[in-house]
Amino acid sequence: xxxxxxxxxxxxxxxxxxxxxxxxxxxxxxxxxxxxxxxxxxxxxxxxxxxxxxxxxxxxxxxxxxxxxxxxxxxxxxxxxxxxxxxxxxxxxxxxxxxxxxxxxxxxxxxxxxxxxxxxxxxxxxxxxxxxxxxxxxxxxxxxxxxxxxxxxxxxxxxxxxxxxxxxxxxxxxxxxx
Length: 178
Prior knowledge:
Elements: H1 4-18, E1 36-41, E2 44-51, E3 54-64, E4 71-81, E5 84-91, E6 101-105, E7 110-114, E8 118-120, E9 123-131, H2 132-140, E10 143-149, E11 156-162, H3 166-177
Antiparallel strand pairs: 1-2, 2-3, 3-4, 4-5, 5-9, 6-7, 6-10, 8-9, 10-11
């Protein structure tokens, strides 16, 4: 289940962790003079807001517990071009934060190995940076697998992020960011 509150939390975290662009291109208005645009592309959501004359756009996906609505996993990316996307992934507490986080697309081998940057009340933050090759792989894939080690017992904690709609959400985010 995806919630607007989770989207807002992840947007706020990303703004704090990777910074908001101050380029003149962000001063342009959103389509139709809107102050905010929210679109769904498959399992991804595009969010773009105009605040103080600056445009902030990102694509995101959240997974929440159906009963408690607590955020289990969140991923948000900002992209101003087709060859780079940066963002943050939020993972739950209970992971061994000194162990690597391994990303894998579909059944292929390891795609990227990352590390937890810090943990906040919403969860543990993992910075993301995807280059042209990584974005091409994400566009072709169906599932982004995330593997981490649990803090207790060291067993594997596995998460799956659907890539359904990723390509169109990325393209739309780039378009709205101009």
